[in-house]
Amino acid sequence: MAAGPAARRRHRRRIVALVGASASRTAYALVNARWRQWLGRQPGIEVRDAARAIAPGSPPPDYIIHHDYSERFGEVARPPGGKLIAVRTWDFGPFPPTWVEKIRGQYDQLWVHSRWVRSQAIASGVDPRRVRVVPHGVDERLFRPTGRVARLPTPKRFRFIFVGATIVRKGVDVLLAAYRTAFRPEDDVCLVIKDHTGDVFYSGLSLRAEIQRLAADPRMPAILYIDDYLPAPDLAALYRACDVAVFPYRAEGFCLPVLEAMACGVPPIVPRFGPALDYCSSRTAFRIPARRIRLPMRGRFAFNTLGFTEDLEGVDFCEVEVGVLAESLRAAYGCPPERLARMARAGVRVVRSRFRWRDAAVRIARYLGALDRDGAGRVRPRPAPGERARRRAAGSRDWGHAVGG
To answer: Is 148 left (phi over 0), alpha (psi -120 to 50) or beta?
Structure first.
């Protein structure tokens, strides 16, 4: 009996075409670059650039993975006899309805980066059988607790660090207010803020001017502002020069800098809400209460820097109170060094156990193999009337534990 297409694929190298930039200095391009690097090392898998994979005369790819935010989430042709996978995250809660329709009608699977985003995708109407979680990772050879330590131009002994775009979604305004509340200029503490205003996704949104104003104010505790793209070895050295990381985000799909800080032995302060619950526990992090805010809405969200918009039906995010974060900053500043060291070791163990890029590649290879075995790829019917509302309610219940003291 002749072998079927799935059986034939198992006995040759499977071709994966990855749609999306990997050389630009954006968050999703970094992920694509790491996926290309580590997935290509998996047995039986060949990773190709999308343009090469669909060139005339080339064998069609077995899988097309679409991870590209440089343009509207549009049409991607299904490879003949192959599978089509969307990688989408959404920081603001329920997925845009147009995304849901495209995923349900065109794609075999949806990959997201955290259980939080998975719950939101399902609540928005995506079939839970199609949704898979592929967490971000770190290269543990670079992000580790030992190694070069950056020399910072501050005499202050204790250093907090924030890494990421200095935008309201990431809670930088809350951080600045809490830091000013918690400390005085004479305290032996410095807040290191590592920005990246060169990322096109955050163009025009940065709080850079406000941060620079506060850093120059003699009535403020010390602030060191860095606005440079740092290669991974330099970024790891910067983490190692600090004691505690702070990420009071309102909305995130994963928040990779938290994981990078933990890998370098720097315990983080995070909300007890959202994606950080996948990798932060009371043993590895200072988890603080956050108020969940869910608002129905019908409006249009503009990607001003990219030139297109998406219609939304609701938002779901959290809010950390300034006073609560100030208390946590003071507690971390006064934390016994032995406890910080225990948290650091526990965090490193968590990262190295399941949050490396190689772990993501192994998971991806497993998902691709399951797509072959399960024969996924059939477009399933739309949910019955009222099903989307039921799933949205179920998703809300699933994450009710994410809020509290």
So the answer is: beta
- Coil/strand/helix, residue 252: coil
- For residue 315, the surrounding DSSP H or E stretch is strand 308-319
The Cα–Cα gap between 40 and 157 comes to 43
- Single out the residue of 259, 361, 256 nearest to residue 35, CA to CA: 361
State pTM to two decimals.
0.86
92: which 2 tokens? 């603001």
Per the DSSP assignment, residues forming a β-bridge with 226 are: 194
The torsion angles phi and psi of 188, rounded to 5 degrees, stand at -85, 60
250, 319 Cβ separation under 8 angstroms: yes
In this prediction, residue 196 carries a pLDDT of: 81
User: Distance between CA 272 and CA 143 in Å, rounded?
Assistant: 24
**Residue 74, by phi and psi: left (phi above 0), alpha (psi -120 to 50) or beta?**
beta
Using an 8 Å Cβ cutoff, are 271 and 251 in contact? no
Helix crossing, 172-182 with 208-215: angle to 10°? Answer: 10
d(CA 183, CA 196): 26
Residues 135 and 109 sit within 8 Å (Cβ to Cβ): no
Query: Which distant-in-sequence residues (6+ apart) come within 8 Å of 404 by Cβ?
Result: 272, 289
Q: For residue 348, with 0-12 CB atoms within 10 Å meaning exposed, 13-18 middle and 19 or more buried, which class applies?
A: buried
Q: Which residues face 224 on adjacent strands?
A: 192
Cα–Cα distance measured from residue 116 to residue 256, given in angstroms and rounded to the nearest whole number: 14
- The three-state secondary structure class of 310 is strand
Segment of 198-207, 241-250, 367-376 carrying the highest mean pLDDT: 241-250
Would you place residue 386 in the very low, low, confident or very high pLDDT band (cuts 50, 70, 90)? very low
Gap between the Cα atoms of 343 and 345, Å rounded = 6
In single-letter form, the type of residue at position 250 comes to: R
The CA distances from residue 140 to 246, 285, 352, in Å, are 21, 19, 7
Distance in angstroms between the alpha carbons of the first and the last residue of the chain: 62
SS3 of residue 243 by DSSP: coil
For the chain, helix (H) and strand (E) counts, in that order, are 13, 14
**Tokens coding 6:** 């799935």
Bridge partners of residue 300, in order along the sequence:
311
Number of neighbouring beta carbons within 10 Å of residue 318: 22
